[in-house]
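Cross-check.
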Amino acid sequence: MRPQDVTLTIPTRGDVDLEPILSMLPPFAAVIVWDNSALEDLGIYGRYAAMELADTDVVATQDDDLVVADWARVLAEYRPGQVLCNYPQPWDIPWVARGAVFDSWLPAASFTRYLDSYPFDEYFTHHACDGVFTLLADEVRVVDYGSTDLPHGFAPGRVSTQTGWYDERRPLIQQRCNELKAVA
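Predicted model, tokenized:
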């Protein structure tokens, strides 16, 4: 997949310098930054709200606190109907945070399934949506072509630095998705 045929989305709280990321990107068709400080605060769900603005059928995404090492290799792995995550393994949830590419319509199927049973609330938008997307997607593949963390990724208030992330919020994503898959 050529970057010129893909829209990249990046959610941000609006309190970081995105230049280190933007300066390293290939020539995507568009880069849409969902700035939660300037737009509706949708947390990490901002990446999916930004996808609704995309003019391409294929989208990519990454977080605002890292640099994807090799977008060319990630994009080359794209397959229609599949979520491709660039993420170091082993992890229990294949996160899209470190670079992912997929068809723009794929998140809606996972989210509809989840939101038929659970609310569209702050837990979903600020914590669960990425896990819900990949755990409920029909086909997910994980590769590891690397990424480099930026220092602000470990700042207080980031999702992974919040109290309860590892022992409450993450397990709840898995529990809810496992329950939904069990009744399918």
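The beta strands are 6-12, 30-35, 58-61, 66-68, 83-86, 100-103, 140-143, 147-149. The chain has one domain: 3-182. Passed to J.P. for a second look.
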